[in-house]
C-alpha cells in the first residue's frame, strides 16, 4: 500500500514566527489563516501549503545582506500576504485579472497598511514572471518590463528583493529571475543562496 504523506503543518505562529502586532493580528484572522493553510503540492510549489512557501520566503529575507530594518519589515508583510488569497482566485478562462490573487491580497491589506510600496508589490509580485513569459514570445528582451516599471519603478530594489526571495523557493525555475537581473536597470543584485547554479560564479560586490 502506498503511504500518503502528511499534509499537516505546525501552528502558524510557530511556523511563521510573527514579529509585530500586525503580523500576530493577521495570523489570527480566520480568512487569512484559511488562505495560508490552503494548497496541495504542485509544480513550483512542492511544499503544497501556502504557509510552508511563506516560511521559505521569510527564511530568504533573513539571508539578505545589509538589509535595513524597515525594508525587512516591509518584505515580511509582503511575504505573509502575497499568496494568501490564491484559494479565492478566479479560475475562469479567459482569465479575470481583476480577481488575481495579488489583487485580492492588496484589497485585503489596504485595511491594514497605507504603505504604497508594500501594496503595489503585493499586487504585482507575479508580474515579473509574466513579463518574462511574454518576452520569450517576442523579439525584444527588455521592452516587456516597461509597464511593470511604470508601476514599481519607484521601489524597484524592494520589488527585486521580494521577487528574488519568492523565486528562490520550492522547485521554481530560476530563468525569470536571471532575466530580470539582467534586464532591469537601477537594481543592486544581491546573493541570497549561493548554491543556485547560475549564482555560483557571479561576482557580486558589496
Q: Could you tell me the radius of gyration in angstroms? A: 17 Å
Roughly how many Å apart are the termini? Answer: 54 Å
* % residues in beta strands: under 5%
Give the tally of structural domains: 1
Amount of helix: 40-55%
Q: What's the count of strands?
A: 0
Oligomer: single chain
Main β-sheet description: none
Average of per-residue pLDDT values:
89
Poorly predicted runs? 1-6, 201-206
Class by SSE composition: mainly alpha
- Give me the number of helical elements: 11
Order of helices and strands: HHHHHHHHHHH
What is the overall shape? Answer: globular
Essential attributes:
disordered N terminus, mainly alpha, 206 residues, 11 helices, 50% helix
Quick overview:
With 206 residues, the chain is mostly helical.
Describe this structure in words.
- By secondary structure, the chain is mostly helical.
- It has one domain.
- Helix content is 50%, strand content 0%.
- The protein has 11 helices and no strands.
- The chain has helices at 12-16, 21-28, 30-36, 50-63, 69-81, 101-109, 116-124, 127-136, 146-152, 156-167, 175-183.
- Helix 4 packs antiparallel against helix 5.
- The model is unreliable at 1-6 and 201-206 (pLDDT under 50).
Amino acid at each position: 500500500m502506498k503511504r500518503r504523506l502528511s499534509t499537516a503543518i505546525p501552528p502558524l505562529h510557530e511556523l511563521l514566527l510573527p514579529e509585530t502586532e500586525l503580523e500576530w493580528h493577521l495570523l489570527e484572522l480566520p480568512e487569512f489563516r484559511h488562505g495560508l493553510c490552503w494548497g496541495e503540492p504542485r509544480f513550483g510549489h512542492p511544499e503544497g501549503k501556502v504557509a510552508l512557501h511563506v516560511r521559505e520566503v521569510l527564511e530568504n529575507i533573513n539571508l539578505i545582506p545589509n538589509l535595513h530594518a524597515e525594508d525587512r519589515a516591509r518584505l515580511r508583510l509582503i511575504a505573509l500576504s502575497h499568496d494568501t488569497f490564491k484559494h479565492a482566485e478566479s479560475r475562469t478562462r479567459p482569465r479575470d485579472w481583476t480577481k488575481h490573487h495579488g489583487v485580492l491580497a492588496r484589497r485585503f491589506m489596504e485595511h491594514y497598511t497605507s504603505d504604497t510600496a508594500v501594496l503595489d508589490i503585493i499586487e504585482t509580485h507575479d508580474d515579473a514572471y509574466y513579463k518574462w513569459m511574454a518576452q520569450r514570445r517576442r523579439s525584444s528582451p527588455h521592452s516587456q518590463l516597461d509597464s511593470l516599471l511604470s508601476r514599481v519603478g519607484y521601489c524597484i530594489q524592494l520589488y527585486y528583493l521580494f521577487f528574488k526571495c519568492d523565486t528562490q523557493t520550492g522547485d521554481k525555475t530560476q530563468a525569470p529571475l536571471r532575466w530580470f537581473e539582467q534586464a532591469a536597470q537601477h537594481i543592486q543584485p544581491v546573493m541570497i543562496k549561493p548554491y543556485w547554479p547560475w549564482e555560483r560564479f557571479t561576482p557580486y560586490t558589496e
